[in-house]
From TrEMBL:
PANTHER family: HISTONE DEACETYLASE 8, HISTONE DEACETYLASE HDAC1-RELATED. It is an enzyme of class 3 (hydrolase). It comes from Musca domestica. This is Histone deacetylase. Pfam families: Hist_deacetyl. Keywords: Chromatin regulator, Chromosome, Cytoplasm, Hydrolase, Metal-binding, Nucleus, Repressor, Transcription, Transcription regulation.
Length: 393
């Protein structure tokens, strides 16, 4: 059965997504590369809605939403930001006041800025739109893409890890209005702690995360011993690895673990977080993986006849992030791309010095992963899944 590919996009969404200080400009960079390869003609465009306070409160608590709302009010205060007398120094004082108060995580790695509320509502609305599109589809086999989404660290009452809103949780809550069993797959190099915590006690959502885990590596969670809790015990699987993992090892164990999870859980829909920090060369990553490795894993997911929502996430080498998501978009559209970046791309110079899509693994990056340890971890997970199969909802 052929799949319809749908792409969540609007100029407003890109403008807001570009404002996140950790990935400033990444959304437009990615979209322009996708556009320059002509991939937009292979997808149906879905215009995202903008979320509101009520939408955010489906997961986030009222105090945190109230804190976010202050930054929309601040940015539109005619007596401040539209007045030439309001300087950057005044803005820094406002931010300092926030840091001295109960900032709900709006500090350090998640600094607030003028209009952060608009950003949060746009990001949340886009992923909720993607999931609502799947709910309303009659084909039950659609693929919906939102590379601006995928912010998996945000907690119920605070920002964390560059994530100001957990759009993934909000999107999955939309999916629960139609689907009984939802499989969340997290391929970011960092553990999807915010999503896992949100659904740790339910059997409706199964969380599967492949991620790097070492002493001092953010967020420090996601042990293979973490399997959910209470009624959701057994409905979480974590497959942590160490720095330098290669494509051969990653693909081998992803295929085994994903197949076992699918067989045990039998999902009705999948949400896949495709954080680009999993690609070699990311300043906050540590793997030795290239886009082809991850695309091979994603093809395993697509072998199963369920609708899928694909989201972005981390990715701090901005050019490589756009390369990865462009290649993944092409793979989802069943298109083959030329390696040379089109010269009419307005961001062409950002892909130098070779101006190509290719990303090469590093021969000098040591693989800290022991095959025996990975094998034992995989067997433990497989045994664990068998023991919980009889509890499937």
């Amino acid at each position: 059965m052929s799949r319809k590919i749908k792409y969540v996009y609007s100029d407003y969404l890109l403008a807001q997504a570009d404002k996140n200080p950790a990935v400033k400009g990444r959304a437009s960079l990615t979209h322009n590369l996708i556009k320059s390869y002509g991939l937009l003609s292979h997808m149906e465009r879905i215009r995202p809605v903008v979320a509101n306070s009520g939408d955010l409160k489906a997961f986030h608590n009222a105090d945190y939403v109230k804190q976010l709302n202050q930054y929309e009010d601040l940015s539109k205060d005619e007596n401040k930001f539209q007045d030439d007398s309001y300087t950057d120094d005044d803005h820094e004082e406002d931010l300092e006041d926030c840091l001295l108060s109960d900032c709900h995580g709006l500090c350090y790695d998640c600094p607030p800025w003028r209009g952060v509320k608009d950003y949060v509502y746009a990001i949340a609305g886009a992923t909720m739109t993607a999931c609502d599109t799947v709910c309303k589809s009659k084909d039950n086999n659609d693929i919906v893409i939102n590379w601006c989404g995928g912010w998996h660290h945000a907690q119920k009452g605070r920002a964390a890890g560059f994530c100001y809103v957990n759009d993934i949780v909000l999107g999955i809550l939309v999916l629960t209005t139609k689907f009984r069993r939802i499989l969340y797959v997290d391929l970011d190099n960092h553990h999807g702690d915010g999503v896992e915590e949100a659904f740790a006690s339910t059997r409706r959502v199964f969380c599967l995360s492949f991620h790097q885990m070492e002493c001092g590596y953010y967020p420090g969670s996601g042990s293979c011993k973490d399997m959910g809790r209470d009624n959701g015990l057994g409905y979480t699987v974590n497959f942590p690895y160490k720095r330098g993992i290669t494509g051969a090892k990653y693909k081998k164990y992803f295929k085994r673990v994903f197949s076992a999870v699918y067989k045990a859980f039998k999902p009705n829909v999948c949400v896949v977080q495709c954080g680009a920090d999993v690609i070699v060369g990311d300043p906050l990553g540590g793997s030795n993986l290239i886009p082809q490795d991850l695309m091979e894993c994603i093809r395993v997911i697509l072998d199963y006849p369920v609708p899928c929502v694909f989201l972005g996430g981390g990715g701090y080498n901005l050019a490589n992030s756009s390369r990865y998501w462009c290649q993944l978009t092409a793979a989802l559209c069943d298109e083959v791309l030329e390696d040379d970046v089109p010269s009419d791309n307005e961001n062409f110079l950002k892909y130098g010095p070779y101006y190509s899509l290719s990303i090469t693994a590093m021969s000098t990056l040591r693989d800290e992963n022991c095959e025996d340890d990975l094998e034992q971890q995989c067997r433990t997970i497989e045994e664990h899944l068998v023991s919980y199969q009889t509890h499937a909802i």
